[in-house]
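WARN retry 2 of 3 for item q-0093 after timeout on previous attempt; input resubmitted unchanged.
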Amino acid sequence: MTRDDYEAFCEIVLGFAELKGRQLSAPALELYWRAMQHWSIEEFRAAAEQLLRTCEFFPTPKDFESLRKAGRPTAAEAWLKAVEASAGAISCGRVMTVRTCGDPLIDRAVRAIGGYGAIAMCDEDKLHFLERRFAEHYESIQDAEEVRAALPQLTGSDAVSHSSTFRVTGPRSAKDILGRIAHAHNGAAERTRETQ
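OK item q-0093 returned
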């Protein structure tokens, strides 16, 4: 929403508050506005109409966000896509590398449980165990992505120096990793001394 939508926004919120027997102070209304600014006025109006029908109490911005989350794919829907993609993981009795199902979020959750080959090779009566693990990873990755997108200033890579971030790209010994960390730490300490 833009400042041009502020009057329409206030009419919706104040009307809602009146129907639910609540009164909002100017600071509370401003805080509500700031929390909902990333919505379009059309989305906000439609969600308010839905919440008016379904909410017993005056809705908070969290209630609006919960409506938005209802529109995202469920873990069960994502699992079905993952299982379909895993069908191509076995060829001539060998596990093949599966490309992707087309959804990076599903691909990341599948990698977290061992890859498409793990799904393809799993006994059917044990598949529900993998599904549960997949659902946990899928939902946590999905939630993390939403928070990162909403709050890049708090969750972005700017908070961590890139020189101190290590990626494990293959088997490494603990001694090698600790040596890399010590080297980076000594280099950072030396740069700090040079600037003083």
